[in-house]
Amino acid sequence: MASTKKSRTKGFPLEKDDLLDMYRQMCLIREFEEACAQQYSMGKIAGFLHLYIGEEAIAVGSIKAMEERDHVLTHYRDHGYALALGLDTGEVMAELFGKETGVTGGRGGSMHLADASKNFWGGYAIVSGHLLLTVGLAYASKYLDEDRVAVCYFGDGATNAGAFHEAMNMAAVWNLPVIFMCENNLYGMGTAVEHVSAVQEMAKKALAYDMPAMQVDGQNVTEMYEKTKEALDHCRSGKGPYFIEALTYRFRGHSMADPEQYREREEIDQYRAYDPIPLFRDRLIEEKVAKEDELEKIQKAAREEVEAAVKFADESKDPDLDTLGDFVYADPITIK
Amino acid sequence: MAREITVRDALREALREEMDSNEAVVLMGEDIGAYGGSFVVTAGFLDEYGRKRVIDTPIAELGIVGSAVGMAMGGMRPVAELMTINFSLLAMDQIVNHAAKMYAMFNGQFTAPVVIRTASGWGQLAATHSQTFEGWYAHVPGLRVVMPATPADHKGFMKSALRGNDPVMFIEHSLIYRNRGEVPDDDDFTLPMEGAEVRREGEHVTIASWSRGYYLAMAAAEELASEGIECEVIDMRVLRPMDTATVAESVRKTNRLVVVEEGWKTLGVGSEISAAVQEQAFDYLDAPIERVGSLEVPVPYNRQMERAVFPDKDTVIEAVRTVLAKDINTANV
Ligand SMILES: Cc1ncc(C[n+]2csc(CCOP(=O)(O)OP(=O)(O)O)c2C)c(N)n1
Ligand SMILES: [Mg+2]
């Protein structure tokens, strides 16, 4: 969320505090993800680990535009949203370590972060499944007259699944406050968009449902902020769903298991030139929003926060095995 | 002549040989081409056979199976790969309501010989990526469901599936791709997709299992043998049509049965085996049948918790001791 003051910084849609906060969040996510890769190689994190490196501006810019009451659902590449929503860095890392202090008590791991108190309804690992949940949450919000927008994040790959089309149609025909936030990073795992999607521009898929849509530079955090704000306003005014295609690129493999044989080194390097963090830093300096040392301090603090998070995770306990049967049913079962 | 190869290589050989001998065979699935397959079974196939025969599909399980069924109706031999059995749930309608029904519903006019490859397995992948659903598919008449353990069975069944006329659910296991075993040196090696196999003879207890469970059973049997307990280990191999007669026959000798599966016991494959054995060999049972399965919870990510959920060698050994300790001829039941 952005602060409520009206003032704006020259050349930017936000005031300085918010701009620096976005910079801080992006640094935090980057440091966090780098630490994850390291901890994974040390065996502290296991299972599937999908890093958000290169895509940070999308979560940070869009979440900055939301209100606390808005709903967020994501796919399994979910650390970035969790941190941008303000989940505790230590508790997120502890989840990846499978610890009791983790945000889902060590049960969910990297792919299933959640914090219901923040209307963060979780990361989901069945591609496209959560889009329908988002439709339902938006339905409930409208039914209960709550003025919440439900935002779901998903990849280009998810747009080829049946559930995507069902969700788009239902959100449109029921005129629901949903933002479909598609992160087009050009690949679903190792498969390039061109081989599996009839259109290369995901935003076109909204046309079939008469849904307004736009393409946004997903490497530009302030553009993400502004455009999301526009979409949120649209939804809040009762005009129904909105589709945003954020153009981006994942700098690392799909998961830690990815041998990355499907793309050339040159291609990766080419996109690395659009690293959202230095791009934003340079603009902040150029437009005299902040000095280099101020930004360096932010960066350093992010690193320290992540180091502390790793320490916290490492020192936390595994969940008690006696709790294995917990949470299978919310209501008691009495038969023996 | 025979060679020792891995399960993965057995599958690769089967697919390659059938693709080489039959133009109609194509592979389709998510990330099977450029990525090389999530379990590296089809690595290199795209270069070798091209996009026409190695099809990287959209993430659309229902679409993959549905179109594969249509291809099969149209004279092709598609191998539709569903990355893991968890995602097969999205394709269930095409598997159960379409593939399994064609032949009977249309009075035998045509069949849909589609081979659906998918993998069970786990490894700190949490609740939605660690499931074991072979029993769900084995429930359905019209499907053939194989869940092999050995490399020879993987190869022989795959080749048979690609030459047969029925839809086949071919269920692999992510944790046994590297297991090794002998496979005959014969391009025409096929195995009928029926029948359980007694893989180890023993007189005291019968252990029936399949896929990775079979390896747990063998490991348990080895360890128990050092104490003089001889287990007869049966690899079920095919879950539909299921050969329970072989298990009943073994029970007539050992009088005791342990069934090992990785899925939830309730309404599982073990339930079916147990029911069939009491029907066929009730008088021979000296103790209640023990069923080993996983704890009935959504699988947690945490390593210790996950280990506590799934059966291992020690759980199987414990179950064997339990059936040996009980005896209906004495009063301790
Ligand atoms: C239903 C389903 N099918 C397959 C998978 C395996 N899988 C996990 S992520 C993924 C690729 C998704 O790509 P995309 O939607 O573009 O998201 P990205 O990872 O690029 O952010 C696949 C195929 C899955 N998790 N769920
Ligand atoms: Mg993608």
User: What's the Cα radius of gyration of chain B?
Assistant: 20 Å
Instruction: Count the E strands of chain A.
Output: 8
CATH topology of the domain at 46-88 and 109-290 in chain A: Rossmann fold
- Overall spatial form of chain B: globular
Biggest sheet layout of chain A: 6 strands, parallel
How are the secondary structure elements laid out?
The complex is a heterodimer of chains A (336) and B (333).
Chain A lengths: L15 H26 L14 H10 L5 E5 L3 H6 L4 H8 L23 E5 L4 H15 L6 E6 L6 H12 L4 E7 L2 E2 L2 E2 H4 L16 E5 L3 H16 L5 E6 L17 H8 L3 H11 L5 H24 L21
Chain B lengths: L1 E5 H15 L3 E5 L15 H5 L4 E3 L4 H13 L3 E6 L9 H8 L2 H4 L9 E6 L13 H5 L5 E3 L4 H13 L4 E6 L6 E5 L12 E4 L4 E5 L1 H15 L5 E5 L2 E3 L4 H10 L2 E8 L4 H13 L8 E5 L8 H7 L3 H13 L8
The structure holds thiamine diphosphate and magnesium ion.
Thiamine diphosphate sits at the interface of chains A and B.
Structure description:
The complex is a heterodimer of chains A (336) and B (333). Chain A has a domain at 46-88 and 109-290: Rossmann fold. The model of chain A has no long low-confidence stretch (mean pLDDT 96). With 336 residues, chain A is of the alpha/beta class. In chain A, strand 7 (213-217), helix 8 (221-236) and strand 8 form a beta-alpha-beta unit. The longest helix of chain A is centred in the first third of the chain and has 26 residues, at 16-41. Chain A has helices at residues 16-41, 56-65, 79-84, 89-96, 129-143, 162-173, 193-196, 221-236, 265-272, 276-286, 292-315, and strands at residues 71-75, 120-124, 150-155, 178-184, 187-188, 191-192, 213-217, 242-247. Chain B has 333 residues and is an alpha/beta fold. Helices cover 36% and strands 21% of the residues of chain B. Chain B contains 12 helices and 14 strands. In chain B, helix 10 links the parallel strand 13 and strand 14. The radius of gyration of chain B is 20 Å and the shape is globular. Chain B starts with a strand and ends in an 8-residue tail after the last helix. The structure holds thiamine diphosphate and magnesium ion. Magnesium ion (MG) binds at residues 155-157, 185, 187-188 of chain A.
